[in-house]
Specification:
Protein name: plant cystathionine gamma-synthase
Radius of gyration: 23 Å
Number of domains: 2
Cofactor: pyridoxal 5'-phosphate
CATH class of the largest domain: Alpha Beta
Organism: Carex littledalei
CATH superfamily of the largest domain: Type I PLP-dependent aspartate aminotransferase-like (Major domain)
EC number: 2.5.1.160
Shape: globular
Helix content: 25-40%
CATH topology of the largest domain: Aspartate Aminotransferase, domain 2
GO molecular function: cystathionine gamma-synthase activity; pyridoxal phosphate binding
CATH architecture of the largest domain: 3-Layer(aba) Sandwich
């Protein structure tokens, strides 16, 4: 398989892809290293543009709402496609373009579109690539708000849908044969149970039936997984998470072929939710340490998952890096790391689990993940409180489920905090009148 990969000079070269463990070689100018790693791409890809002043190392923030032209001939050259320009900020921005080229390089994709949120990227993809009368096949554990949009909003626009169990190839093939499927959509890993999809295995039947494959890879990050190299047509990210990595900016992106991204971009003009230049700058700044952050988060999460799996007060651990995970072999074959999120079920009910969460000292009780600070939440309380216990159980959200997003704190500190919170949960279950039990 050959894909187009952006070089540091933003030109494209043909790069052979031979699997997730052997990344493509980017042939750039002789005065640079012949092989560029993800670590170097996060720092340098998309930078050193000819519009950036030579005295500036950092990418400037271009806050202008419109691009001015020298004369009428330049306007005509732009309109006829002979001279590139953004003309108006809703159509693009130079600061954002640096960010888009950086993500394209990491994802081994031809093109990337950045928008104001991850959900904005999902909606732009679905609206632009699935026509009225079209059909979507999605996994049952895809991002919940995306599922609600497909079921409740797209259905009003004449788009039908089928939701299948992840990795149930028979159900997928049945849906592909029964319907004229426009798009297959899935999260891998999924949130919060971290199920992993065999992207290559799913892409083959979808393509043979003319369906596009779109993978939301937010839980993995571009460092750990590259769906385009595995056969997906598009890869989505909430850049709010690992990509920016500091819990201080919201954004989303989609990467793929120039042809598909152009279609999405054209539709997105009308949606009118571009990423603002200041946000683009903050994401660029965050990305320069992404490889360091993600490596640390991978290591911490794996070590904590192994610790929890042996603890008597933990009933089950969900983490694709563990051999006990049902898709461990799939994850190992297509991921270079397993991410910083671990979900687990404690030995307790709804209220005992709340006590465990409340007893933690280091993490913030908050939604989101992927940042420098560790975050923890009880999905039954944080995300699905409006649903009954039976409704939650139907989608795999048990009352005793905890989702822990590990930041860049020291492993020993996080481990000690989790162990003391588990111990406090045990004490409170036996002696609820203790002052520390509330």
């Amino acid at each position: 398989m050959v894909v187009a990969c952006p070089s540091l000079e933003t030109g494209y070269v043909s790069c052979p892809i031979q699997g997730p463990t052997q990344l493509p070689v980017l042939h750039i100018k002789p005065d640079h290293l012949p092989v560029i790693s993800d670590a170097s791409l996060t720092v340098h890809a998309g930078e050193k543009q000819n519009w950036i002043p030579k005295c500036s190392i950092g990418t400037p923030i271009i806050n202008s709402t419109a691009r001015w032209f020298e004369n009428s001939e330049e306007v005509i050259a732009f309109k006829e496609g002979r001279k590139p320009s953004f003309e108006y900020a809703r159509y693009g921005n130079l600061t954002t373009k640096v960010l888009e080229e950086k993500i394209s390089a990491l994802e081994r994709a031809e093109s990337t579109l950045f928008v104001s949120s991850g959900m904005g990227a999902i909606v732009a993809v679905l609206l632009s690539l699935v026509p009225p009368g079209g059909h979507i096949v999605a996994t049952k554990d895809c991002y919940w708000e995306a599922r609600m949009f497909i079921q409740n909003k797209l259905s009003q626009m004449g788009v039908s849908s089928t939701f299948v169990d992840m990795n149930d190839m028979n159900l997928l093939k049945e849906a592909l044969q029964k319907h004229k499927v426009s798009l297959f959509y899935a999260d891998s890993p999924s949130n919060p149970l971290l199920n992993c999809l065999d992207i290559k295995k799913v892409s083959e039947p979808c393509h043979s039936h003319g369906a596009l494959v779109c993978i939301d890879s937010t839980l993995a990050s571009p460092i750990n997984q590259k769906p385009v190299t595995l056969g997906a047509d598009l890869v989505l990210h909430s850049a709010t998470k690992y990509i920016s990595g500091h819990h201080d900016v919201v954004g989303g992106c989609v990467s793929g072929s120039e042809n598909l991204i152009s279609k999405i971009h054209s539709y997105h003009f009308d949606l009118g939710s571009p990423l603002v230049p200041n946000a683009a700058y903050m994401i660029i700044r965050g990305m320069k340490t992404m490889h360091l952050r993600v490596e640390a988060q991978n290591n911490t999460a794996l070590n904590i998952a192994q610790l929890l799996e042996k603890h008597p007060m933990v009933r089950h651990v969900y983490y694709p890096g563990l051999p006990s995970h049902p898709q461990h072999d799939i994850a190992t074959s297509q991921m270079s790391g397993f991410g910083g999120v671990v979900s687990f079920e404690v030995a307790g009910d709804l209220h005992a689990t709340m006590k465990f969460v409340d007893s933690l000292k280091l993490p913030y009780i908050a939604t989101s993940f992927g940042g420098c600070e560790s975050l923890v939440q009880q999905p039954a309380v944080m995300s699905f409180w409006d649903y009954s216990a039976a409704e939650r159980a139907k989608i795999g959200i048990k009352d005793n489920l905890v989702r822990f997003s590990f930041g860049v704190e020291k492993f020993e500190d996080l481990a000690a905090d989790i162990l003391q919170a588990l111990q406090n949960m045990i004490l409170c279950s036996h002696t609820p009148k203790l002052p520390s039990c509330g």
